[in-house]
Amino acid sequence: MNLKNIPIEELEMLSYTDLTYLLLKESKTSMNTPSIFKEICNLLGYSDEEYSAKIGDYYTSLTIDKRFVLLENNEWDIRDRHSVELVMDEEDESEETEEEEEIEEEEETEEEDIDEVIDDDIDDEDMDDLSIVSDDEEEEE
């Protein structure tokens, strides 16, 4: 299906993102934001002023639509044409695990040290002299 052969009435019923999807699918290449939107504006018969006024909202709609992916070269393409491959070395996993274990041991040691300090510094006799003061009483002083 060629977008240029579709009547303007039908094109106007489609969203910008739907038009973008059809345009990218038809062109079979990635394109940058201004190029895509300029093509859409040409199809819909928009003026340069309308192009300038609407391109910001158009860019936002592209970033929200999950059908598209922004490539490293700042061009948009259909997400279906691209895959993400995550590769994790076994060495990376073991290093992370060792680091995590060290952090956990340090946290446990810190907690034990704090508990010892609290237990050593507080006597029951010291607690007898303490009283609870409300915020109002504190302000009066």
Beta-strand percent range? 5-15%
Return the average pLDDT rounded to an integer.
80
Helix content: 55-70%
Reading the helices and strands in chain order gives: HHEHHEEHHH
Distance between the termini: 83 Å
Rg from alpha-carbon coordinates: 32 Å
Main sheet strand line-up? 1-3-2
Low-confidence stretches: none
Tally of contiguous helical segments? 7
Structural class, from secondary structure content?
A: mainly alpha
Number of strands: 3
Question: Major β-sheet, in short?
Answer: 3 strands, antiparallel
Any idea what the shape is? elongated
What would your notes on this structure say?
There is one protein chain. This protein has 141 residues and is mainly alpha-helical. The protein is 63% helix and 6% strand. The protein contains 7 helices and 3 strands. It has a 3-stranded antiparallel sheet. Strand 2 and strand 3 form a beta hairpin. Helix 2 crosses helix 3 and helix 3 crosses helix 4. The model has no long low-confidence stretch (mean pLDDT 80).
Write the layout of secondary structure elements.
Blueprint: H1 8-12, H2 16-27, E1 31-32, H3 33-44, H4 48-64, E2 68-70, E3 75-78, H5 90-121, H6 124-128, H7 135-140
Antiparallel strand pairs: 1-3, 2-3
Helix pairs in contact: 2-3, 3-4
